[in-house]
Amino acid sequence: MRDRVGDIVAEGFDVAVRFGEPEPSALIARLILRTRVLTCASPGYVARHGHPAHPSDLDDGRHACIRFRNPATGQPFAWEFHRGGRSGWQVGSR
Q1: Is 76:70 a contact under the CB 8 Å cutoff?
Q2: Does residue 23 contact residue 89 with C-beta atoms inside 8 Å?
């Protein structure tokens, strides 16, 4: 596992597993599975920092969040939250 996209052929890899939409390439890509990412916190963290009431609370600097970075840009991916069929709450897209 690593935090950058490299040239898997030149680096001697036979296979790579990646998340998200594949970049245009001459490589063969196959969907293995569809998954979702869950946002969670330990009970101890919530006891110390509080429970966010809304996804926007995660973007106010009070919470220490681990975020996946886009290897092409180095910027964290925005989080999109879904609840009860509604979607569109985005955190960290600034």
Answers
A1: yes
A2: no
